[in-house]
């Protein structure tokens, strides 16, 4: 009769320790990726702000609102490609029409402050596959922004929570960063549910 063998308690303990270490490494890796994604959004915002201020410093105008943008080679006439010079960026931030919120990107590209073709008005994608949009003033039943803002769409819940905690007050309806649900632009309720959100950073 053969003697039955099995794992000793020491061997089982060693296996459990190894499994624990592997799980810890995986979770830590996921946390690092999540933090990096949040940081990428922050860096994109800072880059847009720097581009706006650089444009204003050089041309004494707000990109998109610039009523003398025909100074650029690829903007031959102001009929449709210049703003009205009133100090605001008009139009919905995600618009597909020929409005100042899209001319914003055309002007920055022509000035060389944002990458892309100089005849392209399209909003760029953010690192999380949504878009980056800019406009002035946004009022809904849930949030109110009076000044110019930079919008980032399709931000996952965990990223939204990190950004709010790191840069603002953690509240979706107050502070310099406010948010709405991406699905229907309804209240974000402090990002309480696992879904995508639109974040609005006030300049």
UniProtKB/TrEMBL annotation:
One Pfam family linked to the record: N_methyl
Residue stretches spanning the membrane: 6-27
Keywords, in A-Z order: Membrane, Transmembrane, Transmembrane helix
Keyword Protein transport: no
NCBIfam families per the UniProt record, alphabetical: IV_pilin_GFxxxE (TIGR02532)
Identification of the protein by name: Uncharacterized protein
Organism: Candidatus Thiomargarita nelsonii
């Amino acid at each position: 009769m053969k003697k039955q063998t099995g794992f000793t308690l020491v061997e089982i303990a060693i296996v459990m320790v190894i499994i624990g270490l592997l799980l810890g490494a995986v979770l830590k890796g996921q946390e690092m990726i999540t933090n990096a994604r949040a940081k990428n959004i922050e860096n994109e915002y800072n880059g847009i702000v720097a581009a706006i201020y650089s444009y204003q410093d050089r041309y004494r105008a707000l990109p998109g609102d610039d009523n003398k943008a025909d100074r650029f080679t690829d903007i031959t006439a102001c009929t449709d490609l210049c703003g009205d010079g009133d100090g605001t960026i008009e139009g919905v931030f995600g618009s597909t029409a020929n409005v100042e919120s899209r001319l914003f990107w055309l002007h920055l590209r022509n000035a060389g402050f944002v990458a892309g073709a100089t005849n392209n008005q399209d909003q760029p994608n953010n690192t999380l596959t949504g878009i980056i949009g800019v406009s002035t003033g946004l009022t809904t039943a849930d949030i109110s922004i009076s000044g110019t803002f930079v919008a980032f769409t399709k931000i996952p819940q965990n990223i939204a929570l990190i950004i709010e905690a790191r840069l603002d007050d953690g509240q979706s309806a107050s502070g310099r960063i406010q948010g709405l649900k991406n699905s229907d632009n309804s209240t974000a309720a402090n990002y309480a549910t696992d879904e995508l959100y639109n974040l609005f950073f006030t300049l």
